[in-house]
Amino acid sequence: MKKTLVVAVLFAGLVHAQAHAQAQSQVSSDGLDRTPLEATTAKGEKVLLYPTGKWAFVDVVRAAEASKLAEQFPENKVRPVDAQGGWVPGSKTLMPGDKDYNRGSLGRK
User: Fold this and answer.
1) What is the CA radius of gyration of the chain?
2) What is the full DSSP assignment across 38-106?
3) Which pLDDT score, from 0 to 100, does residue 105 have?
4) pLDDT, tens digit, 9 for 90 and up, residues 14-48
5) Where exactly are the structural domains of the chain?
């Protein structure tokens, strides 16, 4: 009985360790490892470096402050993903819910 319990506990521990390792690793469907690297800035702040070139503060408060600051710059005010149009200078960007959204080639009303 004790031997079976010990084996069951060891097996559960191995399964848990395997699941934790897979959760920490972010391997995509193409087989590339997308796990961010932990790094420290020159000021001693912990950051995560992503393979896409983006980075983020580990500290939640510092990350919120940086996000608020980044929103002020015009290069970060981009067209929303769900919007339509707006690519041609002077044209209107249509947001979901607009009466002209997704009319396609329906022509004029």
Assistant:
1) 24
2) EEE-TTS-EEEE-TTS-EEESSHHHHHHHHHHHTTSGGG-PPPTT-EE--STTPPEEPTT-TTTT-TT-
3) 63
4) 445 454 445 455 666 677 777 899 999 999 999 99
5) 34-78
